[in-house]
Amino acid sequence: MLQNKRTIWTILLSGIVFLLLAGTASAGEADIKLPDLTNIAFLGGSLTGMMILNIGLGICVFGMILGLIQYMQTKKSSRASVNVGCV
């Protein structure tokens, strides 16, 4: 029983110390130095930084479309199950 109390106090005190020290961090998103993507090239110059950025944006849009399709299918199937329950 003493071991359980010691573990609880250790976790609580560690959490308090973590919360107190987290406020002292001074770096943020505004301090990030981003490179100029027009001057960066990969794979021998065939893949530019802007192309990588645009490919990533396309992947995000593709994922959003797939999520929308899944949402519509789920919504359609939930309506069908409600109609079956009323019969």
The helix tally amounts to 2
Q: Distance between the terminal alpha carbons, to the nearest Å?
A: 57 Å
Average residue-wise pLDDT: 80
Q: What is the rounded Rg?
A: 26 Å
Task: Tell me the fraction of residues in β-strands, as a range.
Answer: under 5%
Number of strands: 2
Notes on the structure:
The chain is mainly alpha-helical and 87 residues long. The protein has a domain at 49-87. The chain has two helices and two strands. The protein has a two-stranded antiparallel sheet with strand order 1-2. Strand 1 and strand 2 (47-48) form a beta hairpin. The protein is flat and about 55 Å long. The termini are far apart.
Short description:
By secondary structure, the protein is mostly helical. It contains 2 helices and 2 strands.
